[in-house]
Amino acid sequence: MKMINNGYNSSFNSNSVGLMSNAAATTASLSSSASTTNANSQSQGLKTYFKTPEGRYKLYYEKTHPPGFLPFSHGKSFSQVTLAQLKDKPAQAGPTPSSNSSTSASSGVRYAAAKFLGVGGGNGVRAIGFAGNNGTGKAVNGASRSGSLVGSNGSHSILNPNYDGKGTYLIFNVGDTIFIGDLNSPDKDPIKSLHFSNSNPICHAFDPEAKDGHDLLIGLNSGDVYSVSLRQQLQDVGKKLVGAQHYNKEGSVNNSRCTSVAWIPESDAAFVVAHADGNLYVYEKGKDGTVDTSFPVIKDQTQFSVAHARSSKSNPIARWHICQGPINNVAFSCDGIYLATVGRDGYLRVFDYLKEQLICGGKSYYGALLCCTWSGDGKYILTGGEDDLVTVWSMEDRKVVAWGEGHNSWVSGVAFDSYWSSPTSDDTEENVVYRFGSVGQDTQLLLWDLSMDEIVVPLRRCPPGGSPTFSTGSQSAHWDSITPLGTLQPAPSMRDVPKLSPVVAHRVHTEPLSGLIFTQESILTACREGHVKIWMRPSSETQSSNPESLVGSSTLASTRVGSSTLK
């Protein structure tokens, strides 16, 4: 297996963005940003588009960390990206700055207020006045680093008057910092940064349905976990967390690094945290957790086990011992019934979360598994890892039904495209086609189409001395029997699994990739160095090629964007 190890590129292009006082200036800024993005990509030998059967995807713009940012300890973690959509601002009991209610104020008024707040401080705010973005001013943070995190310093916060309480944002980690970018703004630099002095952020997850305001989870290399309100972070101009709830403080429950965090669907107050020692913990928001948080000693490290907290006031409320090595990724099915995990031991494990029971699982063809995700209907699971394969796992048959071959190195991210529909689909279960994507350390984005009617499925049984026979259609009728509950299967033989070829293979970055997200208008790809690219779909091409049209509709578009990943 070929491992791509490109050196860190510390040279970044910086575009100075001034205050735009009219629509014509905004349009010029959009055109300039798109031209700069295209020029940068072409200079690196990368194409700014790729073709698919349904049309051409075009690189619209990029997001990255500020020029000159040096993530000294970046080598300890790779960037991950989370898409967060904030809905209309809810009514708040606490005091609210009057400027937040004046979202239609002129750019000049916003700039004056921001400049006033920034006088004499290192955390000043400069408004870019981009019409149609999320209503945020661009934060230009000073060079000083925060010395520590604060659990709640709202009374000392300076509020950002340019934030209107809604929008769609990109959250990504680089080194010791979480960056937040405005998805609908063409500006490359983030509008907000959150610095962590003692440990690097590793993973994060967003819950758009959170009812108490705490919708963002952040897991650190130290094992610490924070839940915060994204809206509250954007309102504050500082670089420290505000109003944060702190869990597993200083590794009091588990001192191994966090590897994955996920909100539990259909459960507003609960989330899970996976660790590098093979344990997964279930937390409830709002619980203090100062009561006894110890759990019984694990008797057999090789066996799955669940232990519950001794007190109803404890937090975490349960510990799941999954495997001996690190858990690399976790994902819930959309209904919250099933939980999938993948780990360094190369196994996919699928649990009935409500029953706390291992349902099924299987081994990779080779090496560790790094990522996993569910189809929207809960019928299939995708995994990727060190065998360079994208594996399609069927929940109905509890086994591998296809392997995707096309990557030249480790597969680091997989996702289903829930916004895509096949032109030949007739909306019947007999003719369903799934589109999914994968990214890898080979810097490539691959798109795949999965049609169970077209897959050739080998029979499990073959006559002695003969070759296996093949059949098309639903594979479930051909297996001898469903695997017994809780069985972890060995890796299947290469000849027994149907192979898929990608419909598209495109080199999208110069650095190894770490993740991808599908939205209604675009595909987002992220590399491990913290650079995110937005590729517009063919259906959005006409709109994106007309800057005036984009400016006029970007606010509306932001309400339609959503993430298909379950993290």
From TrEMBL:
UniProt xrefs under SUPFAM superfamilies: WD40 repeat-like (SSF50978)
Residue spans of biased composition, Polar residues class: 539-567
WD repeats: 362-403
Span list, region Disordered: 538-567
Record key words, sorted: Repeat, WD repeat
SMART domains, A to Z: WD40 (SM00320)
Superkingdom of origin: Eukaryota
Database matches in InterPro entries: WD40/YVTN_repeat-like_dom_sf (IPR015943), WD40_repeat_dom_sf (IPR036322), WD40_rpt (IPR001680), WD_repeat_creC_regulators (IPR051362)
Classification via PANTHER family: AT02583P, WD REPEAT PROTEIN
The protein, known as: Dystrophia myotonica WD repeat-containing protein-like isoform X2
